[in-house]
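Minutes, project huddle
Topic: does the predicted pose make sense with NAP bound?
PN asked that the exact inputs be recorded in the minutes so nobody has to dig through chat later. Recorded below.
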Amino acid sequence: MNNPILLNGYTLSQKKNEDLKKILVKCPSLSLATILVGDDKASHIYVQAKIKACQNVGINPIPVFLSKDITEQELLKKIELLNNDSTVHGILVQLPLPDHLNSHKVLESINPKKDVDCFHPFNIGNLYAGVSDFAPATSVGIMMLLDSIREQWSIESKNVVIVGASNIVGKPTAMLLLQKEATITIAHKKTKNLKELCLTADLIIIAVGKVNLITKDMVRKGAVVIDVGMNRIQTEQGTKLVGDVDFENVKDQTFAITPVPKGVGPMTISALLYNLYFLYQQHYTKNNNDLR
Ligand code: NAP
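Predicted holo structure (tokens), as shared on screen:
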């Protein structure tokens, strides 16, 4: 078999960001408010990466750092202020929130027109109804990666197994792939015979958070494998980021595969920026410039 295509999300995201930068020059300056509650180290790193990505394409980031002790009412008030601020085009709340805050309630308080993460039930509902392809950023990033090989490999009629049924990755990705006329199975903790199921797949997408959950014997020859997992493991050289796929042993089996790092991760950030532009196009045009 030929060498697998390495779906390099780092290179693709740089290209996508350059394209977006050129488009944004022709728009009024867009702003993205990033709300971070508390001082979780990983969340800080993610938020900083989003802020930097905004700056790189000419989006104005509005960092909102709030104390871990903030009350739900205070947080909702802050979101209301951002909802009513016509200079703010997108709002995201970095998850997870501290335990005393109800994430569902908080996400529901964001104006759907500014819901850049696409976590609001209104936006998710439109995605699930098949009337919109606006979706959470990781799912959009995965579709961008698959689109980059559309000339060699098309989604239509493919059998897809998505391992992981979360609201932020597995389920919305299934909806986008369904819109592209693939046949989808979603696996989760209680799925039986995961290996046999994966062997039926033309495309495996894994988003679980377990090192080496997908091994060579689970992947059909010529399948495409997208690894969303992010696991930090300790090696003699220090901490290393790995996915959920036994990459070294699986890769030669595949038609195309994402590495970790430099796979889905950078695409998620790029897709977030495209989501902001999508919201601007949908809701902030000449005919409809009221974002409140
Ligand atoms: P999550 O909310 O914890 O969901 C994990 C899913 O995996 C659940 O549906 C769970 O099943 C399922 N699962 C757990 N163990 C399993 C097993 N042994 N076999 C089959 N399914 C199993 O996680 P998430 O937020 O979706 O994130 C998943 C991974 O993706 C994490 O490593 C995360 O860091 C990474 N991630 C990466 C990006 C990126 O941009 N690269 C973005 C988001 C997430 P149940 O539903 O039955 O509990």
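Observations noted during the meeting:
- DSSP finds ten helices and eleven strands in the chain.
- The radius of gyration is 19 Å.
No decisions taken; revisit at the next huddle.
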